[in-house]
Amino acid sequence: MIRAAKGGPFGWLLDAYIGRKFRSAFRGLWVRGTLPSDGAGRLVYLNHSNWWDGFVLHQLGRVTGWDGYCLMEEENLRRYRFLARIGAFSIRRKDAASSVESLRYARELLRRPRAALYVFPEGEHRPFGVMPLQLERGVELLARVSRVECLPIGIRYAFFEHELPDVLLEVGTPHPPGPLTLFQDGLESVVKRLAAVTALEGFTRKVSGARGVAERWDAARGMAR
Q1: Among candidates 46, 223, 202, 211, which has minimal Cα distance to 139?
Q2: pLDDT (tens digit, 9 = 90+) per residue, 177-200?
Q3: Which residues pair with 44 in a beta bridge?
Q4: Which is nearest to 20 in space by CA: 214, 209, 193?
Q5: Which of 74, 96, 145, 150 could form an SS bridge with 90, CB 3.0 to 4.6 Å?
Q6: How many CA atoms lie within 13 A of 148 on its CB side?
Q7: 222 pLDDT above the threshold of 80
Q8: Whole-angstrom Cα distance, residue 99 to residue 91?
Q9: What is the pLDDT of residues 34-80, one digit of tens each?
Q10: Beta bridge partners of 36
């Protein structure tokens, strides 16, 4: 198993790089709902539709002050081992002994103050909004072993009459560990609410990103909103 190795000079440089990369690619990170701010560890589970999802979670951790970690397939983490520097650790899902080791390690991480363990229970990229979501049982097992609060968050990438896309996060209702159907309902609920969004009313921008040509032109003419 590859363990997380956060921090150090390379980790700090990677933090800065991801922040710049995100802000240059998007108009902003927008959140609707309440992000918990207490110091308890929590399991955060999300839909997985885009290559950018990991960078979004990195920015979410900066906004909330969470000590974020992410469970990642070991084959992929070996290819991109530098991601361990920002909290990724591995699991081999088809290897029972490896899975148990990873579950135990995840439980240890969640005992740390302000720890947040990010999990994509779909297990792979899937198109946004396609229902029903295909969740794997790992999230249920992880929650039962860790005995922490579970929080569903939906992610959507959307264009709203601007050159650059916005990233929208819909925060669901926290709940205790339970059967897989509880996670299914929680994640489908936030994804459905996001799929119905046609404007940014009700969202709060947590990270400001780049401005498009039209916005820069408006600002130059004193017409910026």
Answers
A1: 46
A2: 999 999 999 999 999 999 999 999
A3: 118, 151
A4: 209
A5: 74
A6: 26
A7: no
A8: 6
A9: 999 888 899 999 999 999 999 999 999 999 999 999 999 999 999 99
A10: none
Reported pTM: 0.92
Tokens 């290897």 correspond to what residue? 95
Total Cβ atoms within 10 A of residue 118: 24
Token pair 């936030």 in the structure block, residue: 190
Tell me which residue of 191, 195, 206 sits closest to 48, measured CA to CA: 191
Q: Peptide bond before 132: cis, by omega within 30 degrees of 0? A: yes
What token pair was written down for 82?
A: 């530098």
Are 81 and 53 in contact by the 8 Å Cβ rule? The answer is no
C-alpha distance across the termini of the chain, in Å: 50
3-state secondary structure the chain: CCCCCCCHHHHHHHHHHHHHHHHHHCCEEEEECCCCCCCCCEEEEECCCCCCHHHHHHHHHHHHCCEEEEEEEHHHHHHCHHHHHHCEEEECCCCHHHHHHHHHHHHHHCCCCCEEEEECCCCCCCCCCCCCCCCCCHHHHHHHHHCCEEEEEEEEEECCCCCCCEEEEEECCCECCCCHHHHHHHHHHHHHHHHCCCCCCCCEEEEECCCCHHHHHHHHCCCCC
